[in-house]
Amino acid sequence: MKAVASPIRRLIRRDQAEDYILILMLSFAFSVSGTRLFLHITNYPKIGGGELHFAHVLWGGLFLFASCLLPLIFSNRMVLKLSAAGSGIGIGLFIDEVGKFITSTNDYFYPPAAPVIYGFFLLVVLIYIRIRRPIVQDARSSLYQIFDEMQEVLDNDLSPSEKTQLESHLDQVIKSSNRPDITRLGKNLQEFLRHEDLFLVPEAPSPWYMRIKQFIDRWITPFYIQAFVVGGLIAWSIWVMAESVRILLQSRNLPQLIELIRPLVAGNFIRGNVSLELYILLIGLQAATGLALFLCASVLFFRIKPLLSKLLNCIYFILLLSLTILTPLLFYFDQFSSIIPAFIQFLLLLGTIKYNSLIRQS
Q: Is residue 201 part of a domain?
């Protein structure tokens, strides 16, 4: 037996890591928005009595604790999805009370709390985008993925398409490996998969999966994606510009301005000239981004091929700028009523990315 000089410690990305991060991200968003909505509808009930108050941060910690235990105890791949969902719910319940932890008065409604929560969500989104990027795999990382996928054999859940994918990965291992033992391991696994005793489950997609696939094949086309992006951007930009112009016009009239900012002053969102000027600046920047998106969408409507890529890149940049800079400020002033505008912009951004990829493919 040939001794290895030293152990290899280089980290390997887990198979389907992007799916687990996506589950965490969605459950995190659902947890925060669902908690705020529930508390608002029920008039912020208190669980406990007397000096006791069981804040929902405790339930968040309980979800996080259970989500940490699951992958430490169980090996099944399904557990990772449960852990991701539980972690997202736990993080959402925890960070929803961040206002209490950054103020000496334990103020749950502290205005900067909403931008902090939104900023943390953006961080998770950036991690997801980074994880989705394809990586170059060597023989070692490919074998990590292969052994992970081999759990389907143990669970009697290996389909013919999954078997073909495993064989393809093993071919890459055999071709790229510079270690005889790794090459031999790949060949032995390949021989195991080709044996007639291997149990395969027939591929019978569920009816709901087939309906979703048919819907995607029918509607996710360049024409419909363009209609969604152009129509959505024009409708969104008109609403943003109309609302911004209304507020800017009212700001020129002192009585109307006082009436406009009265709720913001009462909620301590505007505390002086600086915060008032920042609010007016935010509205002006929103109007400018709305106008820019309207112009880009109007030109995109005519589908001028030499300009398509530049227009989509411009729309992508404007939406990204709005989501990363303007939306956190909007969360400060409008708090969690800004969830819907942020969600709409995320949908438009995803539509722009998808349309750009379809254009490149065609």
A: no
